[in-house]
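C-alpha cells as discussed.
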C-alpha cells in the first residue's frame, strides 16, 4: 500500500500541500515507511498566514476567559488520546513508550498552565501619577505567530509555545519536523474536534522552504524555534532582519560534575538515564561527565556496567530501555564520531557501534557508548553528538571542573552530583548554564518555569514556558489618562 501523504491544516480544513517533493517518514526501529511529508512551498505557508491573520482580528477580541475554554477541552482530549499519541511518538521517533508517555505529560502540563492566562496576562496600573492622571500597562497579543519544531520531541515541543500563544490571543502556525509529522497530525485532529475558530491554529508541513517563507512573511510577528544551533542562529538572524521577535533554542553539550561524596548508586542510575535515555537525543542529555578525586574510579566502573546492561530494542516492546536514533545518517554520524574519539587518543570503555538488534537488523541502533580520557580540546569533547555516547574526563578540583564547564560553547544544562550543600551552592552560582541540576540528571523545567538555555544553546531573551511565554506572546501597551472633572455630568 502506498504510504499516506501528510496533510496541512489551514483555516480549519485538512488540505493537501501543493508540494512536488515528499520525504519518507521512517520508523527508525523497523525502517517501515509510515507516511510521506510534503516539503510545502511558500504558497502553502502564505495561505496559512492569510487565514491566521483574518482569524487574529476576531480572536484577539475574544475574552481570555473564553479563549481558555478551548484549552480546558484540549486538556481533556489529550488525556483521552494519551496512549495513542505516545505510541505514535515511539513509532515515528524511536523512543520507548514510557519516554513517549513522559513527553506527552510535559505537553499536557503546558496546556494546564496556559489555562491561567486570564490572570497571567494581567497588566498593572498606577493611580495619580500626576494630579488627576492615571497610567496603566495592558498586554495585547502580537499577531500571527509561528512554531518551528525539531524531531526529538514531536509531541511536547510545539506545546512549549502553542497553548500560551493562543491563550494570549495570538493565532498560530505550527511547522513540525518533516521527519516526525505524525504526532502533530493527531494533535491537530484533536484541535479540529475541539472546534477552535477557523484560522486560530494552523499547520504547514515542510522543511527549509516552508521555514524561509515563515521568516519572510510580514504578517508573522513572532517565531518560536527549537532545533540545532546553526539553524537557531540562522532563524534568529533572519527573523530579526524582518522585524520579528524570535526565541530560538539550539543544541547542547551537557556536562555533569561528579564529586567523590556523591551517592554513587543513585548517581550512576540517574546519569545513565540522562545519557542513554531517548538514545541520547535529548537537548538535556548528559554528554560529558567530569569526575573529581576518587569519583573517577568508582563512577567509571559503575557507568560502564550500566551502559552494557541497558536493554536496547524497539520502543513499543516491553522491557526495552533504549530505542534507535532517528535516521541511518544519524547512526553513521554518531559511529564516525565514536571512531574519531578513539583516534584522538580516548579509550573506548564501552563501544556501541555495529549494534545488531534481533528482529530489527536494519534499524538505526547505536548501543550505549562510554569513552574515557577525552582531551578538553578534542572534537568529541566539544561537539554535540546527539546519540547515546557519554564522554568521561577527570580533574583534580571543583574549580578546575567549573572552569572546564564554563569554557564550553553551549549552556543548556549543567549538573552536579554531591552530598555537600556548600559545593552545590557554589556550583549553582558559578556554572554558566541556563538549567542547573543538583543530584538531577535531566534538569527539564516544569511548564511554569522558563526553559532557560544560555550561550550557543539559545538566541533571544525570552525563553519558552513560564512567565517568559506570556512576555513573548504579548506586547505591552502603556496608557496615560486624564479625565477632567468638569467634563463629567454631575450626578
Ligand atoms: P534541526 O535544526 O535540523 O531542525 C529543526 C527545525 O528546523 C525543523 O523543523 C527543520 O525543518 C528546520 N530546519 C532544518 N534545517 C533548516 C534550514 N537550513 N533552514 C531553515 N529551517 C531548517 O534540528 P533537529 O535535528 O530536528 O533536532 C535536533 C536538535 O535540536 C539538536 O541540536 C538538539 O539539541 C536541539 N534541541 C534543542 C532543544 C532546546 O530546548 N534547546 C530541545 C530539543 C532539541
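Sequence:
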Amino acid at each position: 500500500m502506498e504510504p499516506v501523504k501528510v496533510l496541512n491544516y489551514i483555516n480549519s480544513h485538512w488540505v493537501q500541500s501543493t508540494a512536488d517533493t515528499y520525504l519518507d517518514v521512517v520508523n527508525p526501529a523497523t525502517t517501515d515507511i509510515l507516511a510521506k511529508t510534503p516539503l510545502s512551498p511558500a504558497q502553502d505557508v502564505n495561505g496559512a498566514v492569510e487565514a491566521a491573520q483574518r482569524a487574529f482580528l476576531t480572536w484577539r477580541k475574544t475574552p481570555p476567559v473564553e479563549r481558555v475554554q478551548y484549552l480546558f477541552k484540549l486538556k481533556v482530549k489529550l488525556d483521552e488520546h494519551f496512549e495513542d499519541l505516545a505510541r505514535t511518538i515511539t513509532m515515528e521517533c524511536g523512543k520507548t513508550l514510557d519516554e513517549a508517555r513522559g513527553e506527552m505529560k510535559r505537553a499536557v502540563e503546558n496546556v494546564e498552565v496556559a489555562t491561567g492566562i486570564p490572570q497571567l496576562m494581567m497588566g498593572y496600573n498606577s493611580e495619580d501619577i500626576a494630579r488627576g492622571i492615571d497610567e496603566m500597562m495592558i498586554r495585547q497579543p502580537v499577531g500571527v505567530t509561528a512554531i518551528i519544531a525539531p524531531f526529538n520531541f514531536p509531541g511536547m515541543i510545539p506545546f512549549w509555545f502553542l497553548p500560551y500563544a493562543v491563550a494570549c490571543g495570538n493565532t498560530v502556525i505550527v511547522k513540525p519536523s518533516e521527519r516526525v509529522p505524525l504526532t502533530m497530525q493527531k494533535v491537530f485532529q484533536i484541535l479540529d474536534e475541539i472546534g477552535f475558530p477557523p484560522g486560530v491554529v494552523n499547520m504547514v508541513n515542510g522543511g527549509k522552504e516552508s521555514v524561509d517563507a515563515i521568516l519572510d512573511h510580514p504578517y508573522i510577528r513572532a517565531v518560536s524555534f527549537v532545533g540545532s544551533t546553526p539553524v537557531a542562529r540562522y532563524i534568529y538572524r533572519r527573523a530579526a532582519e524582518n522585524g520579528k521577535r524570535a526565541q530560538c533554542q539550539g543544541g547542547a553539550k551537557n556536562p555533569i560534575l561528579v564529586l567523590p561524596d556523591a551517592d554513587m548508586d543513585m548517581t550512576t542510575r540517574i546519569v545513565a538515564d540522562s545519557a542513554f535515555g531517548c538514545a541520547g537525543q535529548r537537548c538535556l542529555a548528559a554528554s560529558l561527565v567530569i569526575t573529581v578525586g576518587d569519583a573517577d574510579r568508582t563512577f567509571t566502573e559503575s557507568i560502564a556496567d550500566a551502559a552494557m546492561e541497558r536493554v536496547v530494542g524497539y520502543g513499543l516492546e516491553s522491557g526495552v530501555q533504549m530505542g534507535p536514533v532517528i535516521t541511518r545518517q544519524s547512526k553513521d554520524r554518531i559511529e564516525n564520531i565514536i571512531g574519531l574519539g578513539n583516534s584522538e587518543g580516548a579509550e573506548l570503555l564501552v563501544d556501541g557501534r555495529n549494534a545488531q538488534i534481533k528482529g530489527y537488523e536494519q534499524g538505526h541502533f547505536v548501543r550505549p557508548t562510554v569513552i574515557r580520557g577525552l582531551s578538553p580540546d578534542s572534537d568529541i569533547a566539544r561537539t554535540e553528538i546527539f546519540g547515546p555516547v557519554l564522554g568521561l574526563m577527570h580533574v583534580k578540583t571543583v574549580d578546575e571542573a567549573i572552569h572546564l564547564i564554563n569554557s564550553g560553547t553551549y549552556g543548556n544544562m549543567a549538573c552536579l552530583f554531591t552530598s555537600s550543600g556548600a559545593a552545590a551552592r557554589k556550583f549553582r552560582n558559578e556554572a554558566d548554564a541556563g538549567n542547573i541540576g543538583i543530584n538531577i540528571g535531566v534538569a527539564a523545567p516544569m511548564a511554569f518555569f522558563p526553559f532557560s538555555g544560555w550561550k550557543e544553546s539559545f538566541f533571544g531573551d525570552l525563553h519558552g514556558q513560564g512567565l517568559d511565554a506570556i512576555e513573548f506572546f504579548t506586547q505591552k501597551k502603556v496608557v496615560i489618562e486624564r479625565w477632567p472633572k468638569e467634563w463629567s455630568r454631575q450626578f
